[in-house]
Amino acid sequence: MSDPSTLSATEAARRIRAGSLSATALTEALLARIAAREPAVRAFVHLDPALALRAAAAADASAKAGRAGPLQGLAFGVKDVLDTADQPSQYGSPIWAGHRPRSDAACVALARRAGAIILGKTVTTEFATRHPGATANPHNPKHTPGGSSSGSAAGAGAGFFHAGFGTQTAGSIIRPAAFCGAVGFKPSYGTLHRAGMKVMSESLDTIGVITGSVADAALAMAGLTGGDYGDPDAKPGRAPRLGLCWGPTADQAKPETRAMLERVVAAAARAGATVVPFEMPAAVVAGLAAHGAVMNGESADALAWEFDHAAAQLSPGLRERMEWGRDQPRAVKDAGRLAFAAARTAFADVVAGFDAILTPSAPGEAPEGLGATGDPAFNSLWTLLHVPCVTVPVGTGPLGLPLGAQIVAGIGQDKAALAWAEWVRQAA
Amino acid sequence: MSDPSTLSATEAARRIRAGSLSATALTEALLARIAAREPAVRAFVHLDPALALRAAAAADASAKAGRAGPLQGLAFGVKDVLDTADQPSQYGSPIWAGHRPRSDAACVALARRAGAIILGKTVTTEFATRHPGATANPHNPKHTPGGSSSGSAAGAGAGFFHAGFGTQTAGSIIRPAAFCGAVGFKPSYGTLHRAGMKVMSESLDTIGVITGSVADAALAMAGLTGGDYGDPDAKPGRAPRLGLCWGPTADQAKPETRAMLERVVAAAARAGATVVPFEMPAAVVAGLAAHGAVMNGESADALAWEFDHAAAQLSPGLRERMEWGRDQPRAVKDAGRLAFAAARTAFADVVAGFDAILTPSAPGEAPEGLGATGDPAFNSLWTLLHVPCVTVPVGTGPLGLPLGAQIVAGIGQDKAALAWAEWVRQAA
Questions:
Q1: A79 carries an active-site annotation
Q2: Do β-strands A44-47 and A117-122 pair in parallel, antiparallel, or remain unpaired?
Q3: What pLDDT shows up at residue B2?
Q4: What percent of chain A has pLDDT over 90?
Q5: Nearest-CA neighbor of A245 among A83, A358, A393?
Q6: Is the ipTM, as predicted for this complex, more than 0.90?
Q7: Of the residues A278, B32, B238, B366, which has the maximum number of CB atoms within 10 A of its CB?
Q8: Is the pLDDT of residue A235 over 90?
Q9: Each residue of B306-332: pLDDT tens digit?
Q10: Which residues of chain B neighbour A344 with C-beta distances below 8 Å?
């Protein structure tokens, strides 16, 4: 039998169901792959192989007893802003060094309930903001993996696990997934409950998954929620009507991104898609203008205890942004949330004219250096709109690093977003 | 000098600012009042007088050093679904017995930053749902104080502290405040960050305050957020245009509530108000129909860890509702959140025609018995609409127990809601 660490989640799940692969064998194979590549990638902030193997053995025992969940034996990496009862949860900050929560975050508990193995905790930037951890891009260790879900994206890109939990406040799932050549899926806001997450911006923070394929993202989401995420590998019976959106931040797209999106548009059109460029209505653009005040204002409240008891252990950049957010007038922050709601209402009319929207995932390839995680310019808008977003890998840029195209649908249209994302990926 | 425990928050704050009252003297007076009445009321699940007095001494030292916040020396009770670093946080459940979080909830940290004394943790029902704690109604110990913010409402009604933090998913601030003869204020959704709260329903849970007067609620909110909550004691220069809403649950109003609201309407009209009865549009009623599936579905996710590791320690009623919520089809829960959003859009048009809306706070007086906390029939709608709600005491029912009238305004119109609530209270 071939190395099981190379199997997609969908294929591994099939073999486990069929009894031809055990969770233990799969976990052992993944741990071997990690042992070989983790020194260069540094996706994990906590990895205890013995603990993972005990969980795999327990999963195998459950399966033998007839209790197998939809994610039986599959491996998850958990971004370290999500609590785990059996592993430290340190939120990317020295303030929380050694913290051991009593309970699992809701999404972690749901993953375990579905039979998944929590392989380890993945690196997050400081409180899922900007100050980076040690993770490198698996495609070139001199380049950032992106952030804030750095370890989940790098680990998914390196094939360390079948799904990495990520969270997105600005661009923290889609951008790193694109940088690492993975599939990133930010579901509709509120799909995965944030209980046990170190929430920063209540209006924005969204939990999602980073995987090796669109089908694997659908499998993970269906297993976690019981919802219908479809079968992205099934060919739709028609080609889509796609809206092409460069968006209010169009001028931040680098040449490789312009070339990539034009290439994807041409390929989609050849495959039968109708592609219609459009501009965002003013109410949507106004929502984006409020993103910074709401995000930093809410995050400053979220970190009130840290700020008052351990400010010296916050990075200087975060401290500065939290002071800025704290000092924005309350009326501006309240108006910002209303602007978000108005943007969502206006966008619902726009997106109703399309099957899905095509837009960049990031300005370009992953930038060089590990001191910064890149720019969420092409992400914040979709986060505040609360819409499902998928990034799919569509080739490489001038340095040979992955590029992603982003597919967006209306709130609640998660299944369609995944289906058309896979359609676009195959067409491109 | 008179007993400082009888002072309103507003007056106590004035005297502390003027230097004629110390936080220590105020805290001592409140602790004496608590010592006398707490055996009958049972508002606290944790109260450490020595800890409170140390905090008061520290507040006095800060004030002497010129560092006095807007809530300097005022006493807060904290519902025990909100984390406190220096006191146990047990969420009304034996599963969390003895739990000591590392940090304060955001709202607790903001209260301390503003100079407030965290007097103790107040009784919550089990995870802020239905299974009650030991608290009694301060107006008649054979009657429920309501819930889930039982201890914060009873403590505010008994004058144990200047403000009690409450949380509302269905009717958990407004109903107990009305039952206990207190003022309850549920601000616009998202105003007080839920970091460090044991969140159940992400779409609904809202943190607010229960106080002795509307002015004290405004003082507390302004001190916590830096926002403008106005001066509810200042006479508006005109009478309001009020919408009268019996709402989709009108048939659940008891005779005392019908009589009360008719009396309030007549008094408001005599004082110059225009009172216009209206019916809710269908989209709003449809939102209410989705409340149960979203609330219990999200709560079941929130308690996934407890359910899988300690189900035997959940009350049978909660376990049953969590199973029901878990088993609702995911599509129904997702559609429910969309129905909430549509209800909010529809309601914005309705409320734009009024200065505020007048509606019952609860079906009637606090029911007899401590085994149940009453019915949120007149609250769930306003919670899902995310609008600011105020209950003000407006007399008593046939058993001599307090009745509340509820004043509601549009999202973000918190200052107006407080101002017109006080106007209605004075008119009634």
A1: yes
A2: antiparallel
A3: 81
A4: 99
A5: A358
A6: yes
A7: B366
A8: no
A9: 999 999 999 999 999 999 999 999 999
A10: 341
- Quick one: which of A319, A320, A307 has its CA closest to B106? A307
Check if A172 is active-site.
Answer: yes
Q: What band does B116 get if pLDDT is binned at 50, 70 and 90?
A: very high
**Does residue A293 surpass a pLDDT of 70?**
yes
Min Cα separation B392/chain A (Å): 25
**Residue in this structure with the two tokens 């800890």, named with its chain if needed:** B51
* A155 has pLDDT over 80: yes
Q: What tokens does B203 get?
A: 């779409």
Measure the CA–CA gap between A238 and A362, rounded to whole angstroms: 28
Q: Do A193 and B202 touch (CB under 8 A)?
A: yes
Domains of chain A: 76-289+338-428 (3.90.1300.10), 290-336 (no CATH)
pLDDT at residue A1 tops 60: no
Q: What pLDDT was estimated at residue B3?
A: 94
- A299 to chain B: nearest residue by CA? B193
Single pTM value for the model: 0.98
Q: Do B334 and A226 touch (CB under 8 A)?
A: no
Q: Which of A78, A84, A202, A225 to mutate to test the interface with B (most CBs of B within 10 A)?
A: A202
List beta partners, residue A210. Answer: A164, A184
Q: Is the pLDDT of residue A2 over 90?
A: no
Mutation choice for A interface testing from B301, B303, B307, B332 by most A CBs within 10 A: B301
- The pLDDT of A41-59, averaged and rounded, is 98
Number of other residues whose CB lies within 10 A of the CB of residue A335: 15
Cα nearest neighbour of A103 on chain B: B305
CB contact under 8 A, A308 and B109: yes
Q: Is the pLDDT of residue B1 over 60?
A: no
**Residues B209/B220, Cβ–Cβ less than 8 Å:** yes
Do A195 and B302 make contact, defined as CB atoms within 8 angstroms?
Answer: yes
Nearest to A338 among B105, B228, B412 (CB): B412
Interchain CB contacts (distance < 8 Å): A and B? 117
Tell me how far apart the alpha carbons of residues A10 and A223 are, in angstroms, rounded to a whole number: 11
- Residues of A in Cβ contact (< 8 Å) with B334: 188, 191, 227, 412
Kindly state the tokens that stand for A381: 């808008």
How far apart (Å, rounded) are the C-alpha atoms in residues A235 and A195? Answer: 36
Beta bridge partners of A244: A277, A358
